Amino acid sequence: MTNISIVTIGDELLIGQVIDTNSAWMAQELNKAGFWVRRRVAIGDGRDDILNILREESADADIILMTGGLGPTADDITKAVLCEYFNSNLVVNEEALENVKNIFTKILRRPIIESNLKQAEVPAACQVIQNKRGTAPGMLFEKNKKIYISMPGVPHEMKGMMTDDVIPFLKNRFVSDYISHRTLLTAGIGESSLADHISKFESGLPAHIKLAYLPGYGMVRLRLTANAAQADSLERELDLSFANLKLLVKEWLVTDEDITLQEALGKLLTYRKQTISTAESCTGGYVAHLITSIPGSSAYFHGSVIAYDNEMKKKMLSVDPALLSAHGAVSEETVKAMVIGAIRQMKTDFAVATSGIMGPGGGSEEKPVGTVWIAVGDAHEIITRKLWFRFDRQRNIELTAINVLNLLRIFILSRPLQSRLKDLGN
Fold it and tell me: Residue 192 burial by CB count (10 A; 0-12/13-18/19+): exposed, middle or buried?
C-alpha cells in the first residue's frame, strides 16, 4: 500500500493563529482517490524543522505532500530549504514568471516589485506545477524513489493544484486501493451509549469493513469504511452492513448521508416546500447562521429576529410585556410567544426560538448559567424544551443551536403538510 504523509508548514499553525484546514481537505480528497494518509504533521518555518521532517517522513512514506512557506516574504523559506535538501539552486521558470506578470498587470492592476518576481524562482531540480489560481508555483521532486510535492499554503491555490495536477499524477504513478464509505448522522444519544447499543454489530463486521465514531456537538456520525484491492462485491456487502446499522439506530437517525444537520433540515424543507424563520435571544443569530450556511437556503428560510434585549422582544415579536414581567426572558412562556411572533412577522410555516443564560455571568439560583429554553412550532402547535449546559459560552451557544434545529426536524416530520398563519390564534 502506498504511504502518504502530509506536512503543513508555518509558525501560525503551531501557535493557533491559523487553523490547519489544508491537511484535512487533502486527506479527504486523497481518500476519495483510493489513497490512505498515514501521517499529518504541522511544523514551523525553521530551516532545521523542515529538513528534519523531510528526512523523517521519507523514511516511511512513499509520497510527502507539503503546503506553506512559498510566499514572497523573508519568513517564507521553504524553497531555499528544498534547494538545500535536493542539492539544487534557484532558477527562474519563464512560464511562472509570465503568470506573475499577468496577474499583477492585467488582473490586480498593480505595479510589480522585486519580491513578486521572485515568486517565479524555483529549484532547478524540480518539475514545476503551474499555479492557475495564484503566483507561487508548486514543485515536484523525486529522490530515492520517493515523491515530494510542495504547494502554496493558500487553500484556494492548493486545492486547484491537488485537483488538476497532483491527484491525477498520483493515480497514474501509483496503484490505489478501492475505498468506499457509508456515513449516517445520529442525535439524541451519546457516543458511549451508542457504542454499547451496536457493540454486537461492530464485533460482527468482517475485517475489511471498519466502523468509526465521529462525535460532535450533541450528535454522533457513524462511518463504515470498506477497503479492498478491487471493488467486486464490496459495494453490495457494504450496503447490506449499512442497512443493518441504520435499522439498529433508527430511533436516533437524522440522515443516512454524510451531511450536516442543517443540510438534512434544508433537504426536508425543500422536499415539503415549506419555510422557516428564527427568533433568537441567547444564540444571537447562530441558528440562522447555520441555516444560511447551506447554498439554496433562501428557498426555505425567510429571516431571523435577534431579539437580544427585552424591548426588541416586545417591539419585533410582539411578546406581551406582562408575560416578560411575570416569567422573565428565559422561560417557556417567552419562547412560545417568540415563535408565534416570528411566524406572524415573517409568515413562515415553522419557527424556532431560543432564550437562555450562556455565561459566564448572568445566572441566578433559580436560573443558573447554562439554563436554556427552546421552542419550535407551526400555526397549530408549539413544543418546548428546557436544557441545562455546563460548558463555556461558545459551546453553550452551539449546543443550543443544534438542539433547536434537531427538535425542529423532529417536529416537522410529525406534522402533516398543513401549517398556516390563520390558525395561530385558535
Answer: exposed
Sequence-ordered list of residues with C-beta below 8 angstroms from that of 380, at least 6 positions apart, any chain: 415, 418, 419, 423, 426
User: How many other C-beta atoms lie within 10 A of the C-beta of residue 61?
Assistant: 21
Alpha helices for 249-331 (secondary structure H): 261-272, 286-292, 310-317, 321-327
- Indicate the burial class of 232 (C-beta count within 10 angstroms; 0-12, 13-18, 19 or more): exposed
Q: Which residues of the chain have pLDDT under 50?
A: 419-421, 426
Strands 276-280 and 350-356: parallel
pTM: 0.76
Q: What confidence tens digit (pLDDT) does each residue in 81-120 have?
A: 999 999 999 999 999 999 999 999 989 888 989 888 999 9
The separation between CA 145 and the C-alpha centre of its own chain, rounded to angstroms, equals 35
340-362: b (≥16 Cβ within 10 Å) or e: bbbbbbbebbbbbbbbbbbbeee
**Mind listing the domains of the chain with CATH numbers?**
3-173 (3.40.980.10), 178-255 (3.30.70.2860), 261-423 (3.90.950.20)
E-only strand ranges, 22-72: 36-43, 63-67
CA dist., res. 347 & res. 377, Å (int): 13
What confidence score (pLDDT) does residue 164 get?
97
Q: How far apart are CA 275 and CA 301, in angstroms?
A: 6
CB atoms within 10 A of CB 11: 17
Cα separation, 129 vs 127, in Å, equals: 7
Q: What is the DSSP string of 219-250?
A: EEEEEEEEEESS-TTHHHHHHHHHHHHHHHTT
Joined grid coordinates for residue 268: 426536508
pLDDT score at 418:
64
Please tell me whether residue 137 adopts helix, strand or coil conformation. Answer: coil
Residue among 38, 136, 50, 35 at smallest CA distance from 93: 136
Asked if 56 and 39 touch (Cβ cutoff 8 Å), the reply is: no
